[in-house]
Write a structure and sequence with these properties.
The complex is a heterodimer. Chain A is of the alpha/beta class. Chain A has seven helices and 16 strands. By secondary structure, chain B is of the alpha/beta class. Classes of the chains: A alpha/beta, B alpha/beta.
Amino acid sequence: MTKDPQARIIGKESWKDYYLLSLESPRIASQAHPGQFVMVRITSHSYPLLRRPFSIHFKDERNIEIFFKITGSGTGILSQKKSGDTLDILGPLGKGFHAGETLRGKDVVAVGGGRGIAPFYFLAHELRSHGAAVKIFYGGKSHEDLPLKAKFEENGFELFCSTDDGSLGFKGLISDYLQTELQTFTPARIFACGPEPMMEKIAEISRSGDIPTEFSLESFMGCGFGACWGCVKRIRKNNDEGWVKICEEGPVFSGKDIIWTEVEK
Amino acid sequence: MTDLTIDLGFIKLKNPVIAASGTFGYGLEFAPFFDLSKLGGFVVKGLYFSPRPGNPPPRLVEAPSGLINAIGLPGVGVRRFAEEILPQLRKIKTSIIVNVCGENDEEYASVVEFLDKEEGISAYELNISCPNVEKDGLCPALDSEATFSVVSLVKKISSRPVITKLSPNVTDIVEIALSAQEAGTDALSLVNTLLAISVDVEERKPVLGNIFGGLSGPAIKPISLRMVYQVVRRVKIPVIGMGGISSGRDALEYLITGAKAVEVGTANFIDPEASIKIIEELKDYCEENGFERIEDVIGTIKR
């Protein structure tokens, strides 16, 4: 984990509300694994005050990419940054996906809902380099919510798209599309990232099919490195259930450890 | 060469900058970013006697130039702190202050009694002012008698200096400060967070799991500074000022007002190196303004 106070924006792409920034940060790039994240300082002023967490979308030797959707004031300001501007970033943070040699020659699935697709471009490359056969399930409300479709296809990944309105691919939820496709094959592992209702549906699929699944969780974060205890989720650990910091012990957790719904006491 | 040391009477600090409890974990979280021994000191996360889970999420929400937290003081408890964390902190050459919590006077006393047997702690900071553990933000620091009661009990048994951390959620903070002084506290730190809420207009419900939280960050600085101004004029003991400090100039406002030292809180989240930058900026200010010692800056506010 390092702080790079001046990561230069060397590339920017946008599709309506979705943005991709390439940042030059060799130190962070050299340490990054799929599923890890960076904390980006939006402004040197006091509003918005806190850094914002973003999955590492991709990396090469010198650069990292982040992919995001405008969802509030922080991402709104970030979307206005231009090539040549610098950003103060911390990273890589958290623990990423398990994408090692054990998956060689096996089918694996990555399910991304909306901006939840962000960590899977990096992961898909990593999995392919380890010899796994990657199928990407990419869902959104409408075709405009699937801006990375072309990029995955151009890079030779097998892609399964769904939209709620049927404007692209399977009409309906990505979890339903996955369930349908799972009648023809059983993956060695599922990776999932997206809105909570999607994640809970994937959790059901993984439970009923007994398929090991890793979820990348999202949370509002104060610091991103374990100091504020703000980003907790109920997680099973050593036969115990407790609040676990998503930034430090996650954001990736095994499906069998996550307690999705908090029971009111 | 500017002398940044501060003599609080009961401990000498390398410099006036202390990292504030609840924003600095157990200290070790910041070790990847800088050498912790450069700090004037740091206050570890509030400790109850037993481990605690903290509040249900959401625990944080941003406010304009501020942060509302309802973390709820999760922690490892005194035993694990003494066995697993304190041995690592002892190697760091700075003042380690332990923030002490309790559900009642006796628990504050039992935490201090337990930690008194452990080496490597410079002082205790009594957290009688956390607004988000009890319903409606209740805590001893809201009442001068409750403050007197817990401070005098802890002072009776503590072998170490005691700093009492006050709440801003009172009508007259001077009254509480005087009560803590009368009970024998060695110093005061002020202020803790301001009781606050945030509402989700789509869901039409409070954002935070605990409903109430504590507001911190730049937004509160004018209020906390005002309270430091009021208190330093009336007490004889050292005052440690905090609230919204994110730069050397912010820290200077408190020092000039009369705080002997400052605590840096929310800024640690935004820039883990914030405290180190503040120390550098204090040094620069002294050099540029002809102060050989930072102590010569303290309380120099003009009428």
